[in-house]
User: What shape does this take?
Amino acid sequence: MKHTRIVITGIGLTAPNGNNLAEFRHSLLNGVSGIAMTEVRFMGQWPAGMCKFDPLKYQKKKDVRIGTRAGSISIYCAREALADSGIAFETRDKSRVGVYLGITEHGNVETENEVYNISKFNYDTKFWSHHHNPRTVANSPAGEVSLNLGSTGPAYTIGAACAAGNIGLIHAAQMLRLNEVDLAIAGGVSESPQTFGIFAGFKSQNALATHADPTKASRPFDKARNGIVISEGGCIYTIERLEDAVARGAKIYGEIAGYCVNSDATDYVLPNPERQAECVQKALMNAGMTVDDIDIVNTHATSTPQGDIQECQAIAKAFHARREPPAINNTKSFIGHTMGAAGALELAGNLPSFDDLTVHPTINVDELDPQCDIPGLILNTPKVVKRVDAILNNSFGMLGINSTLIIKRYRT
Assistant: This one.
């Protein structure tokens, strides 16, 4: 079946090591980590990735106070994407604008903070925030974007664990092809390190990274890796049908070529490399491409001992028939795990490779784990390659959700 062509025309982001694509890309090519020690309530100091964007660039102080951290991240990224796209947003039909944001979890931060605050007043409910309900509903980040922009089309979040960033873009492409909207504002966001619960949860699983140097705590594929670095961030794109983008003379970052979302159905936490490999293979089929068409594979690898091995097994299985391996890299080594934002942010970090033919590396690999030693890994220093025409972006999540998104170089 011939699909309507869908393209990326604007990017807005905030990451622990950059507040726009240029800063983010510079950090990825120059080995700049965004991880630092952060005070976690009840737990002390832990490595984490915190963003340093200015929420007041696009919000009033009252709106920041009433809203959520995830909402502020979303508004900042959405506004930056619109500015980057060159879209005359004020003249657009706002009812034909869709906001689709992937998230891992929402409401934990607000609930934890309010319980902590009310505990100081003997749990008297008059000290409970009357903003609690709108701040903790699952659609809050997308709803806050809709309120800020004045968009009246569909605006909702997609809860898909750490596969959510990819799925935000996938869903946007689907809605554009169904003619539900004319412009999609889509991607993924996370406020995870603002809550101690996620730190405690990973620590209880022995999956929380430790290192004397926080910038080296996230170390996918390294033999000494010992867990996840929890981070916040966001990356939101403007997504359009090709004919609409061309008609207004838009800059086009890339074209959504294919995708797949599937489920392991085997374990709450442990991934299934066979299902991950199937996800990659089905995304290639959806794109009408083969393994030989892919030039960069961005891995999901989170720096956990077992998870990294299983993903490497999945990639090796999916690409075993290829004559020469694609370039394989990882972004979490720089910024930690940004949860619902991960897929969207990690894709953005690789999109400039279409122009400069440079693949950013995985950093912090002092001794490669032999079980992660697959052909094509780019380690510690960037690599210039002969061709970048297609990028394959993997994002996987708890309860066995997998997503693969393929972006190709735009050609007329």
Observations:
- The chain has two domains: 6-247, 258-408.
- The domain at 6-247 is CATH 3.40.47.10 (Peroxisomal Thiolase; Chain A, domain 1).
